[in-house]
């Protein structure tokens, strides 16, 4: 009995945010299993998994940046247009100015940075709400894409296509699998084990009891099992295919940005600004710099996402980036971020994005038309956030934050205090 | 303790991997089947059809025809449309899903002809045949066939009809004409225009036909986005600048929407109705032709195009080589694609009843 | 008194939230025409009880009976209780800043003529209602253009518009200055003479003593006692004893100051208003702080105390014009909050929730928020050090929370304030500026906070306390500056400070020095 309780408390962490993440992961697993059954096993087939990652890596990359923007209390509607704008310029740079492709990638990132600096300037230093700045950017850079591209489609060279359509190389003995992917999986498994042990060490140093050993073992076994399963799947795709390069880019970004947002002062400042910008400012956080950074960072990632899409599509086209901002925003909110800022995690957003991706893919495999897929995705988004709100009103763990502030967050709007219904009993509990 | 623990976990993970590897099936498909194994496939196989967004009646009709036609032929049909806003990405995902589901043939009406090469390559590598429907998919060596109406021929028919129509009204030239062409981002627009000029150029050179405004270059004649208001504005401007005291005999219009806009402009200026060409057999234009205003349109019967495509699928199923009638003209940037071209039909008031006899929607209009 | 008819009786009210019993078996008897005060520490259940009464927690979500005007009431929502004449005025005013006084008074209750709002009638009735609460303003004036005191009156006028029989005021004077508070209390007395019954929740015991007829004291969700002010001869100490359940021998801990040399000095400080540049909010202000000294700043609301403090704290308010800051004999220039923190300044803001804390954070990240560099190596945070630092302050300040992983939004006001203090103590400042450090905090926690302030001073730090409560300044500070309309008007040593002479300096520009 107590073991069961231990399990509940410790397997996925005890705090409410972990509970929320556990809920998300559970939802993801449930959806995968559901579609695995409905599609007669096609969902988890190697080639489908590979395609799924390739197809969604750019949206997930956007979700990383969007999470930071939303946590800081802003929104970015321009990511699709920026992706398209950077995409067409990069394609042109290679097709017409014959820039070598590595230089072109650098060029694309620089374009993203310049656009980001432009938008960050208006948001952070002039104080125009990000909603407006990026709405303008959405028009501006979509127009720029059409202006430069003349609404035509520009192909990109083979080398460049690797970042969107490439795979880990084949090498070594014939094991029946892609060896590079297997090695990657092994590295991931070792990393997971190392992290768990580190976490136990940290808990001990905090004078807190780490979870029972068997829980740690169980948790690691599950994670390693998932990694083993995934890497074998990715390694056993058609010869020539394996874990996609765009997936590697995504993984690196997820790890780097997760670390940044959780473990560095800069990341902490983003949450502080989103949670209470005035309080953050009075704690010495350089508000403008943080706002500038999140907006600029978003545009750089948007440019990267645009290039990956162009690489995968082998050409830059006038329709690139249409509606991406909505996919990225949806991923972030399904992943548990708060509309008012201050709450959300990278991993949550990735899981949120994957929920949408698997849903999309599974429905397509079932032959459901785009019209109905859109309806279902809309309902899922609404439902996910509604469950949050409901849980909160019921006094259970709250995802949309313990306080809802006005969407605009400049200092003229007085922040409403948290709903009393929640505060009162809590006070009794602590001070009574 | 911890060391033991760490190594035990590594051992567990290694064991788990081995176990999974043991029961894993290894890599599926070494099928690098670019070569013509050409043995056909099962008669009830899955055939995928990926079409652009449901923005025009034509695509909706094509989708219905594919669904029914493929079913009648005994196949399983998976007909998908791209979403309204995220067309390219949707289509890419749909083609990939069809590949995963093991479709033997994938028919693609591309939303963007140049952005599908990765998916086409994957489909091809998985052993599916890829047929480009109506729009040629570019920059890929993995496209197998192309089925379309002969768009150059469309242009030629438009040019010829323009000449015939003007001659019928006024036996001797010189005739004053104006040229319009479609959106510059549409590959086909240039093909139509070139086809028409193929017929008109000799007459212009002879001086028998005069482009009175002097605007003969495709850059000058293009209407961005096939927009009716764009054509109307250009025609208004041409009438004021050039036809103050001249008579306009004919207008080359690439499609029906633009043709009607041009007619609106001319009528608004109080000028006599010139000979105006068109294309697509839109309901309003067929009415206009019957009423004697628009001179001609082109009938590209979607039914025939779908029928030919399904015939190709049937041939592939049987292991035969599908019928093609052009193996030289259609280079997609990577290879010359085997193509089956359907002839378009020019329709004027004279042959409208005959041309639309099989069309349930248009036939009543011609009576 | 017992012959006066009972207007309201709440019988053994019990209200549970998941995991917490907020009210258990609470009884309240209110007689017609009296002013009934409800006292209790934060979290004692006062607000919950009022929410039960006003239908915020509908009938069925609590146990017990509400008998109002002789029959049992089962309010399903606020509207139902308002229709019965029970109107609650919350601490946080529910007015819409961009609307006029008249519009606010009749919001949701607009006088209509043939479906359209009859603005003529509305303005006429508004003027009438405003006269009843003694508010002289044009009914077209926007709420944001009048002061907090007048806003409070608008709220009450709004209650009258609904034909109120029982007026409930939750901390009505918390945000008001002395003059406005006095006016409000007079108004309540006037209501009493006209037979309107009021229930008042307040932390200001002197006001309660002065105005209430009956006092019901709650503690930990239970009724402790009901006192009749006149008959029982109730005074402040008696109320405190009921609230905390023990005798508080003194409101301030004993303390012998160890005052050193002057180490911090501000000279000729001039600052202009951030938006209207012609307004000078700090006029040539100069002051000094010694090591180990607690310096008070007294002044009416709007006198410019907070503005002075924030402008010194890295120019976080207003437009700097001129003036110098000298610390340890050297002039320092503080252009940003980060500069101020680096130079050993700390500012604990007046409004904890709005600008002091990120309520989404837990205790540990709040504790280290102002000096992340102290727990990070090359920009990477060390979670263990963070935890240990937060845990050390939790123990030192005796913050009541199960762990430092607890969200600060779940803490009571006093414990939140301790977290804010910990956050600034963590920056290891030489000078702490505390702006209204005990606002909204109950008696017991206040005592602890005074103790913390004294300990900080004893460590050789300088402490500036800005407060609107004169007894607090007199009890706590070694020296008090008075501020009036952006200028320092006096400097009074502790021994000479009385509420009377402070008040005199706070309301006139004439300088008085008693050093």
Automatic annotation (TrEMBL), chain A:
Its main location: membrane. Keywords: Cell inner membrane, Cell membrane, Membrane, Sugar transport, Transmembrane, Transmembrane helix, Transport. The chain crosses the membrane at residues 21-38, 58-91, 103-125, 176-194, 214-235, 241-260, 292-311, 331-359. The keyword Chloroplast does not apply. GO terms for cellular component: plasma membrane. InterPro entries: ABC_transp_permease. This is Xylose transport system permease protein XylH. The lineage of its organism: Bacteria, Bacillati, Actinomycetota, Actinomycetes, Micromonosporales.
Automatic annotation (TrEMBL), chain B:
This is Sugar ABC transporter substrate-binding protein. Residues 1-21 form the signal peptide. Keywords: Signal. The lineage of its organism: Bacteria, Bacillati, Actinomycetota, Actinomycetes, Micromonosporales. It comes from the Bacteria. CDD domains: PBP1_ChvE. Pfam families: Peripla_BP_4. Its main location: other. It comes from Micromonospora orduensis. GO terms for molecular function: carbohydrate binding.
TrEMBL record, chain C:
It is a peripheral membrane protein. PROSITE patterns: ABC_TRANSPORTER_1, ABC_TRANSPORTER_2. Residues 8-245, 266-510 form the ABC transporter domain. Signal peptide: none annotated. Gene3D superfamilies: P-loop containing nucleotide triphosphate hydrolases (3.40.50.300). Pfam families: ABC_tran. CDD domains: ABC_Carb_Monos_I, ABC_Carb_Monos_II. Keywords: ATP-binding, Cell membrane, Membrane, Nucleotide-binding, Repeat, Sugar transport, Translocase, Transport. GO terms for molecular function: ATP binding; ATP hydrolysis activity. GO terms for cellular component: plasma membrane. It comes from the Bacteria. It is found in: Cell membrane. This is Sugar ABC transporter ATP-binding protein. It comes from Micromonospora orduensis. The lineage of its organism: Bacteria, Bacillati, Actinomycetota, Actinomycetes, Micromonosporales.
């Amino acid at each position: 009995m107590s073991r069961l309780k231990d399990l509940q408390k410790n397997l996925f962490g005890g705090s409410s945010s972990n509970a929320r993440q556990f809920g998300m992961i559970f939802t993801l697993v449930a959806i995968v299993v559901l579609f695995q059954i409905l599609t007669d096993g096609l969902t988890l087939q190697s080639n489908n998994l590979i395609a799924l990652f390739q197809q969604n890596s750019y949206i997930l990359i956007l979700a990383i940046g969007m999470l930071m923007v939303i946590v800081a209390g802003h929104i970015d509607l321009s990511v699709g247009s920026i992706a398209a704008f950077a995409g067409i310029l990069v394609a042109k740079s290679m097709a017409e100015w014959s820039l070598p492709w590595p230089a072109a990638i650098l060029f694309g990132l620089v374009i993203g940075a310049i656009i980001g600096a432009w938008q960050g300037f208006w948001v952070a230093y002039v104080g125009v709400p990000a909603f407006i700045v990026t709405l303008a950017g959405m028009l501006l850079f979509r127009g720029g894409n059409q202006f430069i591209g003349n609404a035509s489609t520009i192909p990109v060279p083979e080398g460049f296509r690797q970042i969107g359509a490439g795979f880990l190389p084949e090498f070594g003995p014939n094991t029946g699998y892609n060896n590079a992917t297997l090695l990657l999986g092994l590295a991931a498994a070792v990393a997971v084990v190392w992290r768990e042990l580190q976490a136990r060490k940290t808990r001990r140093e905090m004078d807190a009891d780490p979870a029972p050993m068997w829980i740690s073992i169980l948790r690691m076994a599950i994670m390693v099992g998932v990694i083993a399963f995934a890497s074998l799947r990715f390694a056993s795709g058609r010869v020539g295919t394996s874990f996609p390069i765009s997936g590697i880019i995504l993984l690196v970004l997820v790890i780097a940005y997760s670390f940044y947002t959780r473990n560095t002062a800069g990341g902490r400042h983003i949450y502080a600004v989103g949670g209470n910008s005035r309080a953050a400012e009075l704690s010495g956080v350089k508000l403008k710099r943080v706002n500038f950074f999140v907006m600029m960072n978003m545009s750089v990632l948007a440019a990267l996402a645009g290039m990956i899409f162009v690489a995968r599509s082998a050409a830059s086209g006038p329709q690139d980036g249409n509606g991406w901002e909505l996919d990225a925003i949806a991923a972030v909110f399904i992943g548990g971020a708060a509309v008012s800022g201050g709450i959300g995690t990278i991993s949550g957003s990735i899981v949120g994005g994957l929920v949408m991706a698997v849903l999309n893919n599974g429905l397509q495999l079932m032959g459901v038309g785009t019209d109905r897929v859109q309806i279902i995705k809309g309902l899922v988004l609404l439902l996910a956030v509604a469950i949050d709100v409901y849980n909160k009103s019921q006094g259970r763990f709250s995802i949309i934050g313990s306080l809802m502030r006005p969407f605009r967050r400049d200092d003229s709007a007085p922040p409403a205090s948290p709903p009393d219904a929640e505060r009162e009993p809590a006070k009794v509990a602590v001070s009574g | 303790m911890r060391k033991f623990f760490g190594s035990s976990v590594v051992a567990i993970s290694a064991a788990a991997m081995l176990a999974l590897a043991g029961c894993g099936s290894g890599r599926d498909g070494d099928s690098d089947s670019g070569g013509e194994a050409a043995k056909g496939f099962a008669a009830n196989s899955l055939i995928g059809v990926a079409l652009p967004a449901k923005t025009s009646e034509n695509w909706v009709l094509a989708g219905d025809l594919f669904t029914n036609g493929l079913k009648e032929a005994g196949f399983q049909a998976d007909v998908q449309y791209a979403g309204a806003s995220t067309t390219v990405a949707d289509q890419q995902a749909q083609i990939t899903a069809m590949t995963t589901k093991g479709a033997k043939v994938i028919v693609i009406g591309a939303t963007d002809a140049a952005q599908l090469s990765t998916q086409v390559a994957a489909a091809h590598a998985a052993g599916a045949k890829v047929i480009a429907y109506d729009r040629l998919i570019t920059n890929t060596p993995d496209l197998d066939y192309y089925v379309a109406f002969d768009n150059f021929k469309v242009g030629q028919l438009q040019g010829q009809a323009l000449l015939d129509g003007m001659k019928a009204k006024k036996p001797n030239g010189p005739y004053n004409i104006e040229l319009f062409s479609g959106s510059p981002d549409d590959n086909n627009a240039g093909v139509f225009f070139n086809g028409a000029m193929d017929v008109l150029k000799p007459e212009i050179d002879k001086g028998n036909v005069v482009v009175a405004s002097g605007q003969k270059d495709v850059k000058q004649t293009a209407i961005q986005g096939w927009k009716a208001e764009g054509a109307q504005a250009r025609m208004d401007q041409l009438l004021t600048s050039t036809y103050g005291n001249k008579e306009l005999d004919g207008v080359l219009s690439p499609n029906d929407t633009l043709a009607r806009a041009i007619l609106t402009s001319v009528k608004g200026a109080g000028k006599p109705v010139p000979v105006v060409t068109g294309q697509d057999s839109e309901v309003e234009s067929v009415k206009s032709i019957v009423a004697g205003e628009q001179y001609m349109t082109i009938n590209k019967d979607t039914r025939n195009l779908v029928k030919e495509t399904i015939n190709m699928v049937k041939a592939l199923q049987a292991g035969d080589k599908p019928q093609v009638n052009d193996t030289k003209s259609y280079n997609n940037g990577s290879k010359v694609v085997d193509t089956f071209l359907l002839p378009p039909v020019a329709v004027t008031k004279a042959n409208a009843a005959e041309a639309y006899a099989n069309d349930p929607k248009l036939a009543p209009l011609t009576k | 008194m017992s012959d006066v008819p009972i207007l309201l009786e709440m019988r053994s009210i019990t209200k549970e939230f998941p995991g917490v019993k907020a009210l258990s078996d609470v009884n309240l008897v209110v007689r017609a025409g009296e002013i009934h005060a409800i006292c209790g520490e934060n979290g004692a259940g006062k607000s919950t009880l009022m929410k039960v009464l006003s239908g915020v927690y509908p009938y069925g979500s609590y146990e017990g009976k509400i008998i109002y005007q002789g029959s049992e009431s089962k309010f399903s929502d606020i509207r139902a209780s308002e229709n019965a004449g029970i109107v609650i005025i919350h601490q946080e005013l529910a007015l819409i800043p961009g609307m006029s006084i008249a519009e606010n008074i009749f919001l949701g209750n607009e006088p209509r003529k043939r479906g359209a709002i009859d603005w003529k009638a509305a303005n006429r009735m508004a003027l009438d209602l405003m006269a009843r609460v003694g508010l002289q303003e044009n009914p077209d004036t926007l709420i944001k253009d009048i002061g907090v005191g007048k806003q409070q009156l608008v709220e009450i006028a709004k209650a009258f518009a609904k034909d109120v029989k029982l007026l409930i005021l939750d901390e009505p004077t918390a945000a008001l200055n002395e003059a406005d508070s006095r006016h409000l209390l007079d108004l309540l007395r006037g209501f009493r003479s006209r037979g309107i019954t009021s229930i008042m929740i307040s932390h200001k015991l002197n006001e309660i003593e002065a105005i209430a007829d009956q006092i019901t004291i709650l503690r930990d969700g239970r009724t402790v006692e009901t006192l009749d002010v006149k008959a029982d001869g109730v005074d402040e100490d008696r109320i405190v004893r009921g609230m905390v359940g023990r005798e508080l021998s003194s409101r301030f801990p004993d303390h012998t100051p160890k005052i050193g040399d002057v180490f911090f000095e501000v000279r000729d400080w001039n600052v202009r208003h951030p938006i209207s540049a012609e307004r000078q909010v700090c006029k040539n202000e100069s002051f000094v702080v010694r090591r180990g000294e607690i310096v008070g700043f007294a002044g009416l609301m709007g006198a410019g105390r907070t503005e002075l403090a924030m402008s010194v704290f890295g120019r976080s308010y207003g437009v700097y014009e001129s003036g110098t800051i000298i610390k340890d004999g050297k002039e320092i220039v503080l252009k940003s909050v980060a500069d101020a923190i680096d130079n050993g300044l700390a500012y604990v803001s007046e409004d904890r929730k709005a600008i002091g804390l990120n309520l989404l954070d837990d205790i540990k990240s709040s504790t280290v928020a102002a000096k992340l560099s102290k727990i990070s190596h090359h920009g990477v945070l060390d979670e263990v050090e963070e935890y240990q630092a937060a845990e050390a302050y939790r123990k030192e300040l005796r913050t009541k929370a199960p762990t430092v992983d607890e969200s600060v939004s779940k803490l009571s006001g006093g414990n939140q304030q301790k977290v804010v203090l910990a956050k600034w103590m963590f920056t290891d400042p030489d000078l702490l500026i505390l702006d209204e450090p005990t606002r909204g905090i109950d008696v017991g926690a206040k005592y602890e906070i005074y103790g913390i302030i004294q300990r900080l001073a004893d460590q050789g730090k300088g402490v500036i306390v800005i407060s609107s409560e004169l007894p607090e300044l007199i009890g706590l500070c070694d020296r008090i500056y008075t501020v009036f309309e952006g200028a320092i008007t006096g400097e009074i040593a502790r021994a000479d400070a009385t509420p009377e002479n402070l008040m005199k300096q706070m309301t006139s520009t004439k300088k008085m020095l008693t050093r």
